[in-house]
Amino acid sequence: MGEHLGVGIGWRLEIDLTVERMQGVDFVEVVAENVHRDHLPESLRVLRERGLPVLPHAVSLSLGGAEPLDTARVEHLGAVGELLDAPLVSDHVCFVRAGGLDSGHLMPVPRTRAALDVLVANVNQARSILGRPLALENIAALLRWPDAELTEAQFLTELVERTDCLLLLDVANMWANALNLGEDPVDLLDGLPLERLAYVHVAGGVEIDGVYHDTHAHAVPQGVLDLLAQLCERVRPPGVLLERDDRYPSDAVLADELAAIRAVVAG
Amino acid sequence: MSREDLAAAQGELLRALLAGGSAPSGFDPDALRVEATSLLAKRRRIVSQLDPDTAENLGERFTELFAEYAIVNPRQAGSRFRDDAAAFAEWAVEHGHMTPPRPERRWWRRKG
């Protein structure tokens, strides 16, 4: 299990003062690609000075990509982790680049042995560069690859166990996959090695034409909080973090969402 | 399946989603459409945030024109969204959808 973090929120430039002033923020996360490797935005410096953990979260390593790992991106993540003295860093179980193109968003990998072997090799290589614990996050997918050989729980479990990584569990992504792909989130909760949990992501989304989009730009649905509650019945998560990336609501609304998360965690 | 085969399959999927490539076998065509639309919407949103002037300039036609541009100009690995926004503005001018923006006037420019 990862170290205790508490309740947190994703730090974004657009809400930096909001995050600084908000009561009851125990830790924050910053998108690693959005900061320089050698100096911090003033707001993050202030938060670090207060002793708040700031965890770099990467979106561009493409750890599930079959092309050679882009080690410069891994080095950047490691440097940001060093600058923040972060207890851990993270990225997703996905690919974003292939065949010379960039998807601009997190794409699922096939749940096959071959794809798992590629991920394990890339993650091991990344870990050798990073020099600090790495947590891997489950993503929300809008499509699935054919010919799956493993369930999502089996795939993620084997991945973190073979690479000795932590899990960053996104319950909003689980909620999205339940609605869009018919995945059973309870099977996933039951099948994952929750003793490897680093922290949890919570976010909002919106349903358009029967498809749930994990936008990080809308309110957190009750279904996501219910999943968080189901997780908390099984394990006390070391941390839970709210991700909000766009269409920022008032400070009061964000504070209410954090309070709702805190209430679920407190049981 | 080798690493090479997986790389080819991932490339084929991205070409189908981003560049109008044919649908790879075994995928649900509806899901491919939904994913392609979602990726395009995200890209368009980011470009409109980086270059609101062009989006505003094109008004109601922005969405349609961006889709037209995007499919023949899929984002290349290693490129930045800023490059994408600049390339789209250039494309819109080249195709006669807007006039080139006037060079920025500097408030400190000397008179005369």
TrEMBL record, chain A:
Gene3D superfamilies: Divalent-metal-dependent TIM barrel enzymes. InterPro entries: MbnB/TglH/ChrH, Xyl_isomerase-like_sf. It comes from the Bacteria. It holds the Pfam family MbnB_TglH_ChrH. NCBIfam families: PRK05409.1. PANTHER family: UPF0276 PROTEIN HI_1600. This is DUF692 domain-containing protein. It comes from Actinokineospora diospyrosa.
UniProtKB/TrEMBL annotation, chain B:
It holds the Pfam family SCO6045_C. InterPro entries: SCO6045-like_C. Residues 7-93 form the SCO6045-like C-terminal domain. This is SCO6045-like C-terminal domain-containing protein.
